[in-house]
Design brief:
The chain has strands at residues 6-10, 19-24, 29-34, 39-43, 50-58, 61-69. By secondary structure, it is mainly β.
Length: 70
């Protein structure tokens, strides 16, 4: 599903050392923050339309998911 203004990320097992990053299609990091809540809302209102990747890092590993900004 394309994202309009907000990307919602649900993390159900936070340990306190997780981080979230967003990369453009060229691999440039355009956002980075620590995760401090199970239900994280990332504003994409200033992002151009296109493909992006969200990366969640924790002590248990890394997950990368693609999303499309309308």
């Amino acid at each position: 599903n394309p994202v309009k203004d907000v990307l919602v990320v649900n993390c159900y097992s936070l340990h306190g050392d997780e981080s979230i990053s967003v990369y453009d299609v060229y691999g440039k990091e355009i956002f980075h923050s620590s995760l401090s809540t199970f239900h994280y809302q990332l504003s994409t209102i200033n992002y151009s339309s296109g493909v992006y990747f969200v990366e969640i890092k924790s002590k248990d590993g890394t997950v990368i998911k693609k999303f499309v900004k309308e």
